[in-house]
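Recall that a protein's primary structure is simply its ordered list of amino acids. Everything else, from secondary elements to tertiary packing, is in principle encoded there. The following example makes that idea concrete.
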Amino acid sequence: MNIKPIKERLIPIKIWLLKWYPIFANIWLLILLIAYHYGFDLFKLSNMLLGGCLIISLMLFVDSIIFYFCLWHRVLIINQAIYLVLQFMNRNGVEFNYYIRTAFGLTIISLLLATFLYRKHGCFKGMENNKGIGSNNQ
């Protein structure tokens, strides 16, 4: 009976979470902004479910480099970080009349850009030459 150590079983889960969290978070952000436009304030629910912070965005960005994720993935992480900065400014007294419109526009642009980059370049292109942590050629 070959029992894998817990570390080996958790690595694929961590990579899956690193890969899909920015996608889910950006889609959720778009849903929140659309709901807010129609008068539903779900931002408190958002903080509970997919609450973000700049440290997590930084860690995701560094992990995306370590695990050789593609540029489209980093675009989504950068959008999260920009949104968090806008949210911080808005909550701490900086007058920003177009906060929701700016966040909505940046989210749409980043989702379109990420989709374009994914369609143009694909994902994990050239990974067979890499010998990093995310590579299958270790």
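Residues 6-37 form the longest helix (32 residues). The chain has five helices and no strands.
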